[in-house]
Amino acid sequence: MDFKNILVERDADIAIVIIDRPKKLNALNRSTISELHHAFAQLENDKHIRVIILTGSGEKAFVAGADISEFAGFSQAQGEQLSSEGQQLLFNFVENLSTPVIAAINGFALGGGLELALSCHFRIASDNAKLGLPEVSLGVIPGYGGTQRLPQLAGRGKAMEMIMTGAMIDAAEAERHHLVNHVVAPEKLMELSMKIARRIANNSPVAISYAIKAVNAGFKNNVLGFATEIESFGACFGTEDFKEGTTAFLEKRKAKFTGTR
User: Fold this and answer.
1) Is 173 labeled as catalytic in the residue annotation?
2) Alpha helices in 73-188 (DSSP H)
3) Active-site residue, 59 included
């Protein structure tokens, strides 16, 4: 498959997947999600690849969110479908890969970008990274697993604060709340990511695949959480607040929410 929005590089048994939409700050659209799915599927089936590193092109953003212009006019049913398809194609798919995936967060990881990083097996951030889930400022909620994975890592209280305020946190705070494992200078990000990837690659890929499966199983006692998120995410698309939030964003003005469902 020829990719238009991503790049795939190889360094021996390590693959580097780069989201390459710099003019959009690597924002996720449906085409990019589809390409990422196909890239991860190909690498998962390549027995020569032991570790995958996921990052964004440029120095400003890992992924600065979803491409809002693509779904601003969606109905409730379309919103629910967007969330369901995205989780299945990419976010849940990445989480359940037997090949380890490291997110190398090189700047903004917002909305769907943070959700993508959270779906990776662990995260390393540059010290200029900013992380957040600003969806409520658009009249919607995180729809790609954010309401489930963020509390698992940061705890319920911190997750509630981040989701309800929509505020960004810096890399140091993200490390304190266990969202990232390491924070380094931007020029050291790929160096450390590759160093850790090589250590992983020296170990048994079979054992690692079973370890991923076992660890993930411990966090899935309430599988209905994701289904609830999908339904609630879709419901937001039927509200006046969603219409106002997305319209204000696209018109580059502050939203005036009324609380109308």
Assistant:
1) no
2) 76-86, 92-95, 112-119, 146-154, 156-165, 171-176
3) no
What is residue 56's three-state secondary structure? strand
Report the C-alpha gap between 69 and 34 in whole angstroms.
18
Q: Where are the domains of the chain?
A: 6-188
User: How confident is the model over 54-85, as pLDDT tens digits?
Assistant: 999 998 999 999 889 899 999 999 999 999 99
Active site residue: 35, 80, 95, 135, which one? 135
CATH topology of domain 6-188: 2-enoyl-CoA Hydratase; Chain A, domain 1 (3.90.226)
Residue reference for tokens 């502050």 = 254
If you average pLDDT over residues 211-227, what whole number do you get? 80
Q: Which of 35, 44, 80, 115 is catalytic?
A: 115
> What is the number of other CB atoms lying within 10 angstroms of the CB of residue 200?
17
Among 26, 18, 144, 25, smallest CA distance to 92 is for 144
